[in-house]
């Protein structure tokens, strides 16, 4: 029996089809077509003044990436509107022209404080697993710097998303999103 009643609610609609973006630098929302154009899935919109102290949101996403013969850098992370809540330090992709390597991101964001309902203090941490070959992965922390709080404006609705930044825009540099789960884990 839990010490306190809690609930877990999936905030996003299930991702029913993979989405691939290519030839981008970023940040690029992974549920939009290349160039941050049209949505291919319903965005997760957090209503105005929804976040409050104690709100806890888990974000999990996974897919594949590939590159041309170049070795671009790749950054993945969780965003609230245009604000990066937590991203990895830019990693240099293995040179694996046309091979689809796996990646998986998992972050946990906790709202620590709210001076007023419109300004909240969050902290996000997690990890990114990415393939260096088809049979080997590396795990790195998110954020890729010292853990710190991030202030966000809670006064207007904003999208909760997973975004990617590629260091080089080339036709062979692509990332595919196969899974996306955004859940709220909060005390009742």
Write a structural description.
The protein has one domain. It is mainly β. The chain has no helices and 14 strands. The model has no long low-confidence stretch (mean pLDDT 88). The strands form two sheets. Strands 1, 2, 5, 9, 10, 11, 12 and 14 form an eight-stranded antiparallel β-sheet that branches. Strands 3, 4, 6, 7, 8 and 13 form a six-stranded antiparallel β-sheet that branches.
Structural class: mainly beta
Order of helices and strands: EEEEEEEEEEEEEE
What is the β-strand count?
14
Intertermini distance: 15 Å
Report the principal-axis shape: globular
Beta-strand portion reads: over 45%
Low-confidence stretches: none
Mean pLDDT across the residues is 88
**Main β-sheet description:** 8 strands, antiparallel
**Rg (CA only):** 17 Å
Count of runs of 4 or more consecutive helical residues:
0
Please estimate the helix content: under 10%
| Domain module count | 1
What is this structure's SSE topology?
Layout (H helix, E strand, L loop, with lengths): L5 E5 L8 E4 L5 E2 L14 E3 L9 E11 L6 E8 L2 E5 L3 E2 L8 E16 L2 E15 L2 E7 L6 E5 L4 E9 L7 E14 L1
Antiparallel strand pairs: 1-14, 2-14, 3-13, 4-13, 5-9, 5-14, 6-7, 6-8, 6-13, 9-10, 10-11, 10-12
Q: What's the short version?
A:
This protein has 188 residues and is an all-beta fold. 0% of the residues lie in helices and 56% in strands.
What attributes characterize this protein structure?
6-stranded antiparallel β-sheet, 8-stranded antiparallel β-sheet, 14 strands, mainly beta, 188 residues
């Amino acid at each position: 029996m839990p010490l306190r009643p809690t609930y877990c609610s999936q905030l996003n609609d299930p991702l029913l089809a993979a989405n691939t973006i290519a030839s981008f630098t970023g940040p690029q929302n992974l549920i939009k077509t290349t160039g941050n154009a049209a949505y291919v899935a319903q965005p997760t919109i957090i209503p105005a003044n929804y976040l409050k102290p104690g709100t806890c949101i888990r974000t999990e996403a996974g897919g594949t990436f590939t590159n041309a013969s170049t070795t671009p850098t790749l950054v993945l992370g969780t965003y609230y509107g245009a604000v990066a809540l937590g991203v990895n330090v830019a990693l240099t992709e293995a040179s694996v022209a046309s091979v689809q390597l796996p990646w998986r991101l998992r972050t946990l964001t906790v709202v620590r404080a709210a001076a007023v309902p419109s300004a909240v203090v969050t902290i996000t941490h997690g990890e990114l697993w990415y393939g260096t070959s088809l049979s080997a992965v590396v795990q790195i922390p998110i954020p890729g710097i010292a853990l710190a709080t991030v202030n966000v404006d809670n006064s207007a609705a904003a999208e909760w998303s997973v975004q990617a930044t590629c260091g080089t825009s080339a036709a062979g540099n692509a990332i595919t999103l196969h899974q996306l789960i955004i859940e709220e884990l909060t005390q009742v």
